Amino acid sequence: MSDWTAACIVEEFKYQDSTNAVQRVLKRLADTQAAERMEKKPRKLPSPNFVLAYLSSFRPKPWPAIPENPSEGDLALQEAFKLVDEAEFNDASDKFDKAIELGCSYMPLALNYTGTFAFIRGDPDTAIEEFNKSLALDEKQPQVWAKRASVQMEKGTPRIFRQRTSVTWTELILGDRTEAMKDFAKALEVDPSDPDVYYHRGQVRFLMGDFSDAASDYAKSAELDKKFVYSQVQLGVAQYKLGQIKDSMVTFRKCLKNFKNSAEVYNYYGEILLDQGDFAQATEKFETAIELERQSASVPGGKKVRNVMPLVNKAILSLQWKKDALEAEKYLKEALKCMSLRICCGD
Amino acid sequence: MVVDPEADIATATLAQILLQEGRAPEALEYFEKSVELARTEQELVSSISYAEV
After folding, report:
1. Cβ contact (<8 Å) for A332 and B53?
2. Which of B35, B41, B46 minimises the CB distance to A171?
3. Alpha-carbon distance A6 to A172, whole Å?
């Protein structure tokens, strides 16, 4: 690797052969190292910010009541619920495992969560197993069908897609769309008016680049629950992707009116404005989003973890607009600090 | 869908900024961090490629 790189430097990167050789060696090296590291890697959950973002993509539901004379499994389950509320997800995951092992009053729900955590850890096979067990006990759970649908997209024959949300590229490995759609159909058989299911089907369609159907799903979800902010924000993004710029702006302005304190709305609107090159407006929106996130994390009983996406976006904007690497560095470090320390109010 | 763009983008962008500023050891620290953050094998391959370059 070093020899070929040195050759490239000596040749001032003029010769394609040496450059290709570097790429080839690098690819082989990375593949081998990745396989080795994957084997040794403990399956850990990503940042609590991320776990919470996924869990919040389903509308909140109160936990079921624990029986008056709880079994040991029920007590473990009760602790698991509390730990989820406190955003202590690794511990929560252990407690759900324990509740299942001991047996508890809400086995399908516990299995829903162990499957969810497996999915978030990047272990789709275990996730599907857990969801299957949950559905075998109670098939009338649209949420579990919708989650299994999303997992199907990480299985099957993987294909890599580069997905641009609006300002950022994310590499995704997408798998079996047909199986995913079957699961969404099952979910809607159980409850044809579940806003979560439409929202998540919209997400899958959006990621596949099918913005038109995604927009219909988001619109349906928003119609079923006007208080669900994500479907409305994503509707605006999908309309933007379809080139329906005016409609998209109307959707976002409506969101700003209906969800005055939602950092998500400001953040996504900012991304669209950034994409349009309206740097001044985008800055304003990201700054509002950052402030709203700071406030909601600082009040007692407020958010346990902050959404750091506005900070990342502000950093990207500083780089793109002002070419200010120092400012970008400051925002990115704040974002990373928030992810490792859970709560941080910035300097 | 489960993607963790925040952590990925924050670490990768930071690493690239530091590299451009000639702060290679600090950059490497963040490239290594992105290797740690990777959840899937494919993510690991891209993270390792950046860390090696």
Report:
1. no
2. B46
3. 33
- What whole-number distance in Å separates Cα of residue A16 and Cα of residue B40? 31
Query: Percentage of chain A with pLDDT > 90?
Result: 59
ipTM: 0.71
Nearest-CA distance A70 → chain B (Å): 34
Return the structure tokens found at A231. 């479907």
- pLDDT score of A346: 37
Question: What is the C-alpha separation between B46 and B10, in angstroms, rounded?
Answer: 15
Who among B9, B42, B46 is closest to A312 (CB)? B9
Q: In which residue are the tokens 């941080």 written?
A: A344
Instruction: List alpha helices for chain B, DSSP H.
Output: 5-20, 24-37, 41-52
Using the beta-carbon criterion (under 8 Å), do B5 and A29 form an inter-chain contact?
A: no
Q: Which of B2, B11, B52 sits opposite A336 (nearest CB)?
A: B11
Nearest Cα residue to A207 out of A227, A181, A189, A246: A181
Give the separation between CA A284 and CA A269, rounded to whole angstroms: 10
Hey, what's the torsion of the CAs at A143, A146, A151, A154, to 10 degrees? -150
The arithmetic mean of pLDDT across residues A218-230, rounded, is: 96
> What whole-number distance in Å separates Cα of residue A197 and Cα of residue A185?
9
Beta carbons of A317 and A282 less than 8 angstroms apart: yes
Distance to chain A for B25, nearest Cα, Å = 15
- As a whole number of angstroms, the distance between CA A84 and CA A117 comes to 11
pTM here is 0.80
Chain B interface, best mutation among A2, A22, A36, A50, by max B CB count within 10 A: A50
